[in-house]
Amino acid sequence: MGKFILYNYFRSSASYRVRIALNLKNIAYEYRAVHLLNGGGEQFSEEYRKLNPSREVPTLIHDGKAIGQSMAIIDYLDRVSPNPRLFPEDPFQRAQVMQACEIINSGAQPVHNLRVLGQLGERFGADQTAKNEWTKYWITYGLQSLEDLIRPHAGKFCFGDQPSAADCFAMPHFANADRFEVSMSAYPTLSRVRTSCEALEAIKKAAPSVQPDTPKN
Amino acid sequence: MGKFILYNYFRSSASYRVRIALNLKNIAYEYRAVHLLNGGGEQFSEEYRKLNPSREVPTLIHDGKAIGQSMAIIDYLDRVSPNPRLFPEDPFQRAQVMQACEIINSGAQPVHNLRVLGQLGERFGADQTAKNEWTKYWITYGLQSLEDLIRPHAGKFCFGDQPSAADCFAMPHFANADRFEVSMSAYPTLSRVRTSCEALEAIKKAAPSVQPDTPKN
User: Which of A57, A86, A185, B198 has a CA that sits 20 to 30 A from residue A43's CA?
Assistant: First the structure.
């Protein structure tokens, strides 16, 4: 299989998605921490930029080749290590799972990441309260869209009774909801899915609270 | 092949991506316009929400089944109509193309879409000038990241000499750069790719300026 290295950050939700995917596939990997705040952000170093021109985490290295963007990484893992599959083979089912992933990946999360919050502060003088309200708004938007999309398809997980890529993207979004005190009570399907996700060892091991770079106190 | 219907909006860059993909694959489709501003936004109607729970364009209907999110749609088209392929078969090459797509899809464009600009106005009192400056910042971020990623791979197009999904995402980003007066002179690779894109009939036909819902004056 070749060696896998994951450049990532314990709290980054895109990193968390990829850790879940790696664990679900039982792929061992070397964890390399990239601190997004220390020294202005380690992702901005020239060395890291060579690995990831967007200057963000995660970056997967496999056999010496670098891949950025959580969607591209998880789709790649599904090709080189297809057991278990995280995207269904049927084209329409696959598209639905990818649509669910993108609701989080392109719809909700990018609008409240550290880069964007920094710009809100710089340009509009947004303080921590305003940033938190902004973040809550987009987390809620993602939860509502995802709930509506998966309701007809969900079993224990977002699509049926086995975890898929959609769960890799959903679980970090649920963790963000907790962190910013967005209640999930209005989303019964997602709440059920979350319970199933939280019972999985692969997902527990990927949690931001238990990574090598998680602060100890 | 079954019938294809595309719910979309002439100026939406995610719609433009999908129109390019459909044209490159020579897939005929019915154009259904969804006006993102009229009456507060036609995408917010209950009828449309049933097709697309994120309440956004585009939505592809194929054989009566609805798919949202441009990435999921283009990946789906590559499966049901693989000639020409927009994603390479080789897993690593495929991942690189998808990474390039995601730089635009999740990195740059979501941060300056209409939804986000509306919230900047509501929450921070951003006027049109502030919104334009915000938009330019994220367009520039996308251009720089994409330039850096594709430089070693680009030929006439983002990856080699044939158009790929990366070009479907790049061309609408270039159009946004024009619209917001971001110069592309600092991005020689992208400028070369753009010239190749603009010469393609498939891309010309997909342009916002020539759609059925494009205003006539």
Answer: A86
